[in-house]
């Protein structure tokens, strides 16, 4: 799914909120990065069985140093930007309503699992 310029800016802001200092590129020292306007869905499986009817994917964004090209693949769920991706896709008609409902249900499930795991961890 292509991303709007606005969504890319919001993603960079979220990333900057989590960075440590200094956060320059480890290869060339540049401090300028861009977010690719595409998402990458990496197939996942629980255990060794992947069902065909309900495939699972981890959504990633690519952040690239604009000077040397070093590219980081960042998990969108861990970074916490799925809300941005969803709003951007719905606003631009890239995500039809049935898919929106499925994605929102998945996000709620993931949030509930995370909350459960955090409460078990103490
Ligand atoms: Zn670089």
Task: Tell me briefly what this model is.
The chain is of the alpha+beta class and 122 residues long. It has helices spanning 5-18, 76-79, 82-91, 97-121; strands at residues 33-35, 40-44, 56-65, 71-75.
What does this structure look like?
By secondary structure, the chain is of the alpha+beta class. The protein has one domain. 43% of the residues lie in helices and 19% in strands. The protein contains 4 helices and 4 strands; from the N terminus they run H-E-E-E-E-H-H-H. Strands 1, 2, 3 and 4 form a 4-stranded antiparallel beta sheet that branches. A hairpin with a 5-residue loop joins strand 3 and strand 4. The chain starts with a helix and ends with a helix. Bound molecules: zinc ion (ZN). Residues 25, 27-28, 30, 65, 67-68, 70 line the site of zinc ion.
Number of helices: 4
Order of helices and strands: HEEEEHHH
Unreliable spans are none
Q: Tally of extended strands?
A: 4
What does the overall shape look like? globular
Q: What is the typical, i.e. mean, pLDDT?
A: 82
- How large is the radius of gyration? 16 Å
Ligand species: zinc ion
């Amino acid at each position: 799914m292509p991303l709007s310029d606005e969504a890319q800016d919001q993603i960079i802001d979220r990333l900057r909120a989590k960075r440590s200092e200094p956060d320059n590129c480890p290869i060339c020292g540049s401090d300028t990065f861009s977010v690719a306007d595409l998402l990458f869905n990496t197939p996942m499986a629980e255990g060794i069985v992947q069902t065909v009817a309900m495939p699972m994917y981890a959504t990633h964004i690519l952040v690239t140093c604009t000077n040397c090209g070093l590219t980081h693949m960042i998990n969108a769920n861990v970074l916490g930007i799925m809300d941005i991706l969803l709003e951007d896709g719905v606003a631009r008609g890239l995500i039809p309503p049935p898919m929106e409902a499925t994605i929102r249900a998945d996000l709620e499930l993931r949030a509930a699992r995370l909350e459960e795991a955090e409460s078990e961890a103490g």
